[in-house]
Amino acid sequence: xxxxxxxxxxxxxxxxxxxxxxxxxxxxxxxxxxxxxxxxxxxxxxxxxxxxxxxxxxxxxxxxxxxxxxxxxxxxxxxxxxxxxxxxxxxxxxxxxxxxxxxxxxxxxxxxxxxxxxxxxxxxxxxxxxxxxxxxxxxxxxxxxxxxxxxxxxxxxxxxxxxxxxxxxxxxxxxxxxxxxxxxxxxxxxxxxxxxxxxxxxxxxxxxxxxxxxxxxxxxxxxxxxxxxxxxxxxxxxxxxxxxxxxxxxxxxxxxxxxxxxxxxxxxxxxxxxxxxxxxxxxxxxxxxxxxxxxxxxxxxxxxxxxxxxxxxxxxxxxxxxxxxxxxxxxxxxxxxxxxxxxxxxxxxxxxxxxxxxxxxxxxxxxxxxxxxxxxxxxxxxxx
Length: 384
Ligand SMILES: *[C@@H]1O[C@H](CO)[C@@H](O)[C@H](O)[C@H]1NC(C)=O
Ligand SMILES: *[C@@H]1O[C@H](CO)[C@@H](O)[C@H](O)[C@H]1NC(C)=O
Ligand SMILES: *[C@@H]1O[C@H](CO)[C@@H](O)[C@H](O)[C@H]1NC(C)=O
Ligand SMILES: *[C@@H]1O[C@H](CO)[C@@H](O)[C@H](O)[C@H]1NC(C)=O
Ligand SMILES: *[C@@H]1O[C@H](CO)[C@@H](O)[C@H](O)[C@H]1NC(C)=O
Ligand SMILES: *[C@@H]1O[C@H](CO)[C@@H](O)[C@H](O)[C@H]1NC(C)=O
Prior knowledge:
It holds the Pfam family Ig_3. The protein is α+β, with helices and mostly antiparallel strands and 384 residues long.
């Protein structure tokens, strides 16, 4: 029984579990890597860690390589853990844990070092850009490993760029470009380039550029009256938009200067007529310019005679009156005709017609009704 136990124990020690166990690791550049090697059953045989260049780092608890970044974390019969701080990309590679049994047993752990992408930079911006320009914005980030991803946003809305990845040593240079045909709507728009990478655990790195676009003015006249009449107040507003903001606008009338009148006031972009006069007829033009160009808008003023406009009103009233009378007469005729037909069919049961109330017979009733009709004719004439 006891010998069996010894034999069993021996089996385990010799073949069952006397193997070093390790794990692959991934560390971000600048971080610390803990290399752990475990043995489940060990007869006090020494453990050793060596680097990808086959240099021994630690033999048991004894430091072998002079490198301040490498320290012992834990050494026991069952475990040898060392740490490498301030990890660089050159630390990447296959590390070996050896158990000095006869023969020596080894386990290999691959240390992956992530390259942190640098803060991206945006190139190719012209400040300011001119409307109509074709520009290419390029965003570059270096030092990523694996290659970072770059994403473009136009005011928070994602847009697609053209990505290009080049290896430079162990890391990657990633650039993404955006072709823009600039117009006035791009003025003030923020273009952001964001870096996505596994080593960026917090908010992604990003760069933002705000476009400034210069463009020639565009002018429009807004008027306060649809049908200007003599004596009315009229305001013409010259709306001009440009970047840089256009000079004060200039008003002209029929190609010449504005007449010098008290009731015509120019204030900023506004031209006001305190009381319109027929002599104000004409083409008014407002002009705005900046260094990129000049633009203008015209307004043709036709001052209506209030009496003529009133005449129009009377005409409408007259037509309305005539239509009303014609409708009234037609209705009367229909009623009278209806009654007439009803009576001649012998239906005397109803006597609704006003004219029929005191009529001795049907014919008189009809005559009375016709009298009403004649009355309507008189009314019609009176209306006209
Ligand atoms: C490495 O080991 C040390 C000591 O046990 C511990 O404080 C540290 O958190 C470990 N680091 C990692 C990345 O596991
Ligand atoms: C390992 O060695 C220590 C003394 O160096 C001893 O006390 C211990 O019992 C040994 N362990 C084994 C499993 O042989
Ligand atoms: C460790 O990494 C190496 C090299 O990348 C790979 O061949 C191996 O399969 C990995 N082992 C484990 C357990 O992931
Ligand atoms: C990447 O490499 C190509 C071809 O080798 C080259 O034309 C290009 O300029 C490089 N781009 C970067 C970002 O280095
Ligand atoms: C319009 O102007 C003329 C000449 O300036 C003046 O005689 C006339 O009274 C004005 N009409 C009105 C309605 O103000
Ligand atoms: C105003 O303009 C109308 C049409 O253009 C024209 O018939 C009228 O004579 C003009 N009146 C004056 C005072 O210029």
